[in-house]
Amino acid sequence: MTESSLIELARRGMLVTIELAMPILVVTLVVGVLISIFQAATQIQETTLTFVPKIVAMVIAFAVMGPWMLSVIVHFTSSLFNNVPVMIR
What we know:
With 89 residues, the protein is an all-alpha fold. It has one domain (3-88). It has 3 helices and no strands. Helix 1 packs antiparallel against helix 2 (48-82). The longest helix is centred in the N-terminal third of the chain and has 40 residues, at 3-42. The N and C termini lie close together (6 Å). The relative contact order is 0.13.
């Protein structure tokens, strides 16, 4: 395994990680900003008001994006396993 193939493998792994994490992070960020604006407008400073909607939004995002996320990780893993003989040389 050469340095360039190892670097390429690490780069692909990081890109897949970012690609899988981004939808959940964006949903959580948007919900957090909306809740912060609501709290600033109403001056309600309840801590559960920030966590519960974020958790619900994350669960919904996982339910909606789950099949796509699974296909991305399965495709990456299968291509990784298929390239093992090439990487060993």
